[in-house]
Design a protein that fits this description.
The protein has one domain (about 35-235): MetI-like (MetI-like fold). By secondary structure, the protein is mainly alpha-helical. It starts with a helix and ends with a helix. It is built from ten helices and no strands.
Length: about 240
Amino acid sequence: MNQWGSLIIVVVIWELVSFFGLVPKFLLPSFTHVLTVLFQEGNILAMHVLTTLVEALIGLSFSVFLAGILAVLMDKYHCVHTFMMPLLLVSQTIPTVALAPLLILWFGYGMMPKIILIVIVCFFPLTMSLLNGFKQIDEAYLNMMNSFHASYWQIMKYVKFPFALPSFFSGLKVSTSYAIISAVIAEWLGGDSGLGVYMTRVRKSYAFDKMFAVIILISLFSLILLWGVNRIERFVLQK
């Protein structure tokens, strides 16, 4: 069975359950009906998809930038590592759904609270993946660089960072899958546009077929972003 076999099985089961009425169709519309809704609502959904994607990509970009800076500082300075590690761990214990309303109250209904939430969610796996990558360097390489009296930044540039790239991309894949979901969660609580805003509107009208359409879009674009990260990883690691 190929890599899409399990997905095909799920779709077939979904279609059969809906066809035989095992679950009321207004609660579980058929897959083919959901696809029809996707095409019917295409123009409206395109605007909401664009908003969510922009939020996710901006938030993910900030996460990569900030995680890179913090990971280097934590690797170089033990005091920074000691101070920041508890904060990083605590940040992952705060429920996203509980934090989102506060961000909306503090920063309004614009794009800012969504981006902040994405950064909070994506920042941790990126930082930890880089830190772990820095610490998995073979001591022989570090000893060789030290024998040449290389500075910390030279060691980082020529040894630590290149060797940490596989670990970094593992963290980036995790963060990429979180980014769109975090944006949608933040959009549930308010905004003018976005897949989360659209989901809230159709949920209130009990249009579950449209909700399933959004779920498919979220999964689809998450997979597209992951595919993009995989392509970048192959390009970078082959150099």
